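User: For my dataset I need records formatted as: sequence, then C-alpha cells, nothing else. Please produce one.
Assistant:
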Amino acid sequence: MAQVKAKKALGQHFLTDLNVAKRIAATIDKDNLPMDAKVWADIPVLEVGPGMGVLSQFLMSAGRRIKAVEIDTESVEYLHKVYPDLEVVEGDFLKMDLSEIFGGEFALIGNYPYNISSQIFFKVLDYKDSIPVVAGMLQKEVAERICCKPGSKVYGILSVLLQAWYDCEYLFNVPPGVFAPPPKVMSGVIRLTRNSRTELGCDEKLFKTVVKTAFGQRRKTLRNSLGGLIPSSSPIMQDPIMGLRPERLGVEDFIRLTLACS
C-alpha cells in the first residue's frame, strides 16, 4: 500500500490513515448499502480527486471497474506509476461531461476537496439519473448541511435540492489528525442513494429558482422573499406557510410553492 505524501493542493488535505480510507471505500460495498440500493452494488465507480491513491487502493480491491478523475499533474504521474491498473482521467471534474466517462450508471466517491465540494454536489444533480449512489468525505459543516432535516440552522439550498432526489445519510466523523496537513475543521462521511422519485410534479428549473430565491433571503418570511415569483392573487399567499422562513420547509413544501408560481 502506498504511503501518502504530505502535500496540499487545490484546497485538499490528503488522508493518511489507511483504516479511515478503507472505511470510506466500504460505504459503497454491496453489504453496506441500504437494502433498496442493492441493485446498484455492481455498477462502476468514479473517484473524484484520488490524490496519491489512498482511497483508490481499497476501491480497486473491491473488484468493480474504477476510474479516477484527477486535475493535478504530479498526482496523475504518481497514480500511473504506483497503480498502473487504475484508469485515470486527467482533467477538471467540474468541467467534464460525466455521461462520456462510463456511458451509463456509476457510483461517485471521493475525499472531496473542501473548496469545491458544494460545486461537486450541485453537479451531481445534473447527472442524478446516472449517479444512483454518492459517497465520500467532505468538510463536516457541508456534510451536515446536505443531510440535515428542516428546522436546522444549516439547512439550505443544497439540502433541499439533494434531498428531492436522494436519501441522505451522515455516516461518521473524521478528525483532523488523520490528514496531512491537518485541516482546521472536522470532516464527515456521507452517503446519498437515489430515491424512488422520477419527477417533481412541477417545473424543475422553476423549483430550483424558488429554493434559491427563498434561501437567498433566508431571514425573511416566504411571503416577502417569494413575492416576486408568486402572484399576489394566489390563494397560497394567505396560507400560514407564507409566514415561515425557508429552513422550516421540506421538499414537498417547496414543490407546492413552485406550483403556485405557475
